[in-house]
Amino acid sequence: MIATLRGKVLAVTEQALVIDVNGVGFSVMVTPTIRLSAEIGSDLFLHTTLLVREDALTLFGYHSIAEREFFLLLQTVSGIGPKVSHAILSSLSLNQLVSAVSSGDTKTLEQVSGLGKKGAQRIILELKEKVAHFTIVDQKTQPPNSPSSLSVAEALAGLGFNAREIDHALEIVQTSPAESIEEKLKIALVALQSGGQGNTKAQTTESDRV
């Protein structure tokens, strides 16, 4: 098993990244938050798992061990394979997943394309007693403007925003003059709180007052 990868981002495709590790390029399936925050030439570290099939070897990569373990746990559910498991982690944050499974919230899980109501019910039925060890981050203890080594996308995912919201926020951040992660995160949060209205300059000014 390839448990981790550390290297430079060589290419960004629609669903994957190509990561150069000592001259060898690994194609890794990643979530939208990782893909959209990746920059060509930047260093990246991922927790990975290798899917072995007769016709293909596929690497899946995540920012945390917990995400990777949840990806594997999802595949223990009848009828849930790696493709759907990855789609689930691409659509919902780990916090949202653990909360939904623990509370029996099928509606949140049904947001995932290709899962459906029956799939959501099976996940809750088979995993409800198995997710207790996955820690849910208390968003109230995570100030949005605190410095962090995480990327903006990672930080937003940790705060519970879904992939669509993160994608929208990153589009706005990429057009801003902000350079530090802290400044970019402030702009992203202002954009999400205001529904993405207003121009970047206005968002930057408002974020300076946060």
From TrEMBL:
GO molecular function per UniProt: ATP binding; DNA binding; four-way junction helicase activity
Coiled-coil stretches: none
InterPro entries: DNA_helicase_Holl-junc_RuvA_I, NA-bd_OB-fold, RuvA, RuvA_2-like, RuvA_C
Sorted UniProt keywords: Cytoplasm, DNA damage, DNA repair, DNA-binding
Domain (Holliday junction DNA helicase RuvA C-terminal) ranges: 152-192
Pfam annotation, one family: RuvA_C
GO-annotated biological processes: DNA recombination; DNA repair
Domain annotation DNA helicase Holliday junction RuvA type: ranges: 1-61
GO cellular component: Holliday junction helicase complex
HAMAP family, sorted: DNA_HJ_migration_RuvA
Protein name: Unannotated protein
Native organism: freshwater metagenome
